[in-house]
Amino acid sequence: MAEQSAQETAVVLTLPTFDMTNVNVWFAQTEAIFQAKHIHSQTARYAYIVEKLPPEIAADVLDLLEAVPAHNPFDILKEAIIYRTGKSHERRLHDLFNTIQLGDSRPLQLLRQMKKLLWKNSMSESLFRKLWLDKLPPYTSQILATLPNDLDLSRIAEIADKINDVPNISSADSPVPTDAAMMDVIEQLKQQLERLSTQVQHLTRAEDKNSYKVRRRSHSATRARRPMLCWYHRNYGDKAHRCTKPCTFKCQPSPKASRKAGNVDPGST
After folding, report:
1. Residue 24's pLDDT is what?
2. Do residues 44 and 8 touch, judged by C-beta distance below 8 A?
3. What is the spatial distance between Cα 110 and Cα 105, in angstroms, rounded to a whole number?
4. Fewer CB near the terminus (10 Å): N or C of the chain?
C-alpha cells in the first residue's frame, strides 16, 4: 500500500488554484482529477491537497499538517478545510463590516487591512469603496466622494493620507456639518422666509389701504372743486334759458350790458 501511495504521489498533476469563494466546487474538481489519474490513495490525495493550499488556509488546518492523521488523512483534511474556512469566511466578512475601524491607522493602512480581510471574497468595487469611505472621518470622506469614480482606490487612499496630514483639519474649529445640522439650518431658513413673507404681505396690505384712502380723498377733493351744474347750464352754458337747483353756474354779463352799466349818468341816480 505504501509503495502504491509513493507511485501515485510521483504522478505529475496540475490541480486548479484553491478557490476560497467555493471550496466545495474546488474539491469536486480535484477529486475528479484524482479519479481520472487513478489516484485513490488517501495519503497521495492528502499530499497533493497540502501542496495547493494557500498560506492562510494552511494556517487554519496547521494541526492536521503537523500531525498527519493515521487513517483517511485526505477525508479528514477535506472536512476540516471546508468547515474551518467556512467559519473563517464568515469571520472575515464580520470583521470587514463591523469590527475593523480606522483608529490610529492611516486611511491607506485601513484599506490594506480591509483588502486582506476581503481576500478572495466577491464584492463590487463600488461597494468596497463605499464601505471604506464610511470608516473614514466625515471631513475626509466628503472630500474623497468628489473624486472621479474611475480613480484607483489605492490612489484615493494616498490622497486621504495627505488630507489627514493637514494640521487641525479635524479640529472643532472647522467641523463639517452633519446631515442633522444641515436640516436644522434649512428649517431655520424656512422659518425666516415665512416670517419675511408674512411681513411683506402686511406691508402690501397697509400700502394698498393707504393708497385707497389717498385716492378717495383726492376724488372727493376733485368733486368738491368741480362746479355743480344743472343739465341746462352743463349743455348750453350761458345761453341756457332755464336753471334747476342745485346749480353753481354764474352768468357772465354780456359786453353790451357791461357798456350800458358803465354809461349810466351819475346824476340820474
Report:
1. 86
2. yes
3. 6
4. C
